[in-house]
User: Which sequence fits this backbone?
């Protein structure tokens, strides 16, 4: 990937609730799908925290682009 690449995760609901007694994380059922910009760790590694969920879109899940 180019040094100036930006990677996005598409079509996920970024909001959730956490039950601290059980550790369960649940997607917000009223949350709207959004795009998450990942954090660049190095030229080959990007990371993001994504709430566990089923994907409801056929749009590509991950997209990279250079700026």
Assistant:
């Amino acid at each position: 990937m180019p040094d100036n690449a930006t990677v996005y995760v598409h079509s996920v609901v970024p909001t959730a609730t956490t039950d601290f007694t059980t550790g369960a994380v649940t997607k917000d059922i009223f949350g709207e799908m959004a795009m998450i910009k990942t954090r660049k760790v190095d030229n080959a590694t990007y990371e993001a925290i994504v709430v566990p969920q089923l994907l409801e879109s056929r749009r590509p899940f991950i997209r990279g682009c250079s700026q």
